[in-house]
Design goal:
The protein is α/β, with parallel strands linked by helices. 42% of the residues lie in helices and 16% in strands. Strands 1-2-4-3-5-6-7-8 form an 8-stranded mixed beta sheet, sandwiched between helices. It starts with a strand and ends with a helix.
């Protein structure tokens, strides 16, 4: 279906709908293996964030516009029941913000590799070196967005290659970088009015430990692990857990959701 200018794919059967949100530098294709594994038991809905598709018009989608798009997608694919959110990278940020705004429309959350990355606790947990690395790579991507064109694409693909992103290099372009520009320059309404994420829902949090630094604080993981309705799993992977260990990832997600059902 076509919603808010993006194509939304819905595959699978079941009473529970999973809405899948990707991050940088990916598209809805990030979730191919997950859809294949889960669609026999769940309805899987996914779409590519505005401006992220190869060849898409250069557009920066504000937080409010992204929330409106996500609201319309959820209401269209599951009008009568709350959904499960399966989130990664920027998809976590947008999905968490949506959950905080529309708490009754979310039943459960599967967050992948991004936790309380905007919290004071997270900032305190980072070393000076980690903070410098974080600012450096995000500023580089924000700059690539401003540069644009072939030079911006080359800057973006170079960093994606260094980060070992699994996406095909031909699908990666500087148009995917606008969230970093909004984050660091305050353009397009900024993200300053984003609210702190407080996990009020049953949550499965999966993260890769093989990275220069984590995207969550130890306190965030410990608080979730202490809750009987939540689970925290550490994988021996980098940032793209679902691509590096798809079988284990799919089993973990499917088993957790099946047990809840």
């Amino acid at each position: 279906m076509r919603i808010g200018g993006v194509d939304v794919l819905v595959e699978g059967e079941g009473s529970t709908t999973i809405v899948m949100l990707h991050g940088w530098p990916d598209t809805r294709r990030l979730w191919d293996a997950q859809v294949a594994a889960l669609k026999s038991r769940f309805r899987c809905a996914r779409f590519t964030l505005p401006g992220f598709e190869p060849g898409a018009a250069r557009v920066a989608c504000s937080l409010d516009d992204t929330m409106a798009l996500l609201r319309d997608v959820v209401n269209a694919v599951s009008p009568d029941r709350p959904v499960v959110l399966l989130l990664h990278d920027w998809g976590c940020f947008f999905g968490y913000q949506y959950a905080m705004r529309e708490p009754t429309r979310v039943a459960r959350i599967v967050g992948v590799d991004i936790g309380d990355a905007r919290s004071t606790e997270y900032a305190r947990s980072l070393s000076a070196k980690a903070k410098a690395m974080l600012v450096a790579y995000q500023s580089w991507l924000a700059l690539a967005w401003r540069v644009g064109g072939r030079a911006g694409d080359a800057m973006t693909r170079g960093l994606a290659r260094a980060a070992r992103a699994p996406a095909d290099a031909l699908t990666i372009h500087c148009g995917m970088n606008y969230p970093y520009d909004i984050r660091w320059t305050g353009s397009h309404g900024s993200y300053r009015h984003a609210v702190a994420f407080v996990p009020k829902w049953p949550m499965l949090f999966i993260y890769g430990a093989r990275k220069p630094f984590l995207f969550h604080s130890p306190a965030f993981a410990a608080a979730l692990a202490a809750r009987p309705d939540c689970r925290v799993l550490e994988f021996d992977t980098g940032h793209w857990v679902m691509a590096e260990q798809p079988q284990r990832f799919n089993d973990a997600v499917g088993d957790w959701l099946a047990a809840a059902a």
